[in-house]
Amino acid sequence: MSSQIVDNRGNGEAGWSWPAIHPEGRKYGLAVFGLSLVFAFLAWETLAWPLAFLSLGVLAFFRDPVRVTPQGEDNIVAPADGLVTLIEQVPPPAELVSDDGQGGEGLGEEPVTRVSIFMSVFDVHINRSPMAGTIKRVIYVPGKFLNADLDKASEENERQHILVERADGRRVGFTQIAGLVARRIVPFVKPGDTVAAGQRVGLIRFGSRVDVYLPRDTQPRVVLGQKMVAGETVIAEMSQQPLIEGVSQ
């Protein structure tokens, strides 16, 4: 489905289709399937069939479905599919705090609200920009591979920080964090790129987490345990601080 404008008045078209497979995953799926064919040729069916099913799982992991991003300059949308596991006030990461040395401002040192989205291996792992703007920083930090659901994963795991700035200077930072199984963070953007809200900016292989750092005058519109859809779920509105409550049922 090509990009199109749809609205809540019924304009536009919608229909189900098989999601595309991102090129990053095709080589892995085909490699596993090729190995299954080798074992099938050798009559080792006890290995051939599991590998054939595994190749389908690998392709499913790298699926890249079309998303419809709500339009609105103050919307901050979820950068990742998954479950909201943490919402807390924390200082921004050191890599996003200060001036970049070339006149580019960071998020500052005062605590901000961090929303952590945990992605299981069953979630789509394509990450998207939380808002429209210019990519100001893409900073990769090597580290450990702890369980991404742990709070300390934000400081100790392999991660990549991205800072997006709107035309009016408002900034949102987010961090892609590798987990127990995730072993590579793949960026699609670089500093200076202009992105739209919901645009694909990278992926993390095999289970991980994304932290979003909201502006100081902004509170999330999501609650713990809520399921996020990357590029579609509005997690906050710039300069809005509503109290949102949810019922687990």
TrEMBL record:
Cofactor field: pyruvate
Entries under NCBIfam families matching the protein: PRK05305.1-2, PRK05305.1-3, PRK05305.2-5
Active-site residues, record numbering mapped to chain: S208 (schiff-base intermediate with substrate)
Reactions that this protein is recorded to catalyse: a 1,2-diacyl-sn-glycero-3-phospho-L-serine + H(+) = a 1,2-diacyl-sn-glycero-3-phosphoethanolamine + CO2
Species the sequence originates in: Blastomonas marina
Transmembrane portions of the chain: 28-61
Top EC group: lyase
Protein's cellular compartments: Cell membrane
Comment on bound cofactor: Binds 1 pyruvoyl group covalently per subunit.
EC code(s) of this entry: 4.1.1.65
Pathway of action: Phospholipid metabolism; phosphatidylethanolamine biosynthesis; phosphatidylethanolamine from CDP-diacylglycerol: step 2/2
Taxonomic path: Bacteria, Pseudomonadati, Pseudomonadota, Alphaproteobacteria, Sphingomonadales
Recorded topology in the membrane: Peripheral membrane protein
Protein name (record): Phosphatidylserine decarboxylase proenzyme
InterPro entries: PS_Dcarbxylase, PSD-A
Pyruvic acid (Ser) carried by residues: S208
Positions marked as site (Cleavage (non-hydrolytic)): G207, S208
PTM statement from Swiss-Prot or TrEMBL: Is synthesized initially as an inactive proenzyme. Formation of the active enzyme involves a self-maturation process in which the active site pyruvoyl group is generated from an internal serine residue via an autocatalytic post-translational modification. Two non-identical subunits are generated from the proenzyme in this reaction, and the pyruvate is formed at the N-terminus of the alpha chain, which is derived from the carboxyl end of the proenzyme.
Cleaved signal peptide residues: none
Keywords for this protein: Cell membrane, Decarboxylase, Lipid biosynthesis, Lipid metabolism, Lyase, Membrane, Phospholipid biosynthesis, Phospholipid metabolism, Pyruvate, Transmembrane, Transmembrane helix, Zymogen
UniProt similarity note: Belongs to the phosphatidylserine decarboxylase family. PSD-A subfamily.
Subunit structure: Heterodimer of a large membrane-associated beta subunit and a small pyruvoyl-containing alpha subunit.
Annotated function: Catalyzes the formation of phosphatidylethanolamine (PtdEtn) from phosphatidylserine (PtdSer).
Protein's UniProt keywords contain Amino-acid biosynthesis: no
